[in-house]
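seq as requested:
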Amino acid sequence: MENKIKYVYSTLLAKEWRNLANFYIDVFQCRPRSSEFYFSGKWLDELTRLEDAGINGIQLILPGYEDGPTIEIISYDQTSLRKHDIIPNLQGVTSLVFHVDSVDNILQKALGYGGQQFGATVTETLDNLGKFTAVYIRDPEGNIIEVVQFVK
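struct tokens:
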């Protein structure tokens, strides 16, 4: 029997999940899929291997889609805070990528909502892809977002 596989969401663990969700709503036009949630119980303890785990959060529909995929932004009742910054060449998931009409417009909007520019805005013509403009931005909690525009 074939197993159907479908990508549905990624999770960002946040120090302040509401603030981070508002950043993605205001800057990248994400929208809530449903209301805020809180999960706890034995099932969550067993799933996460944490004792007395509790998760608050919300799922946001990514721009360009009707009903998903989504980004889930959560905080645990007891969140272990990151001890180092995320950098582009760090093993693991390092960035979310959004294609936009204007890289500079989104950069300025992100800066106005507490984001920070990470690296320079670059423009390059790439074989088979056309003109590529991109910048890395850190959201208010330090996660890296790559904002790109391709023009053939």
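The mean pLDDT is 91.
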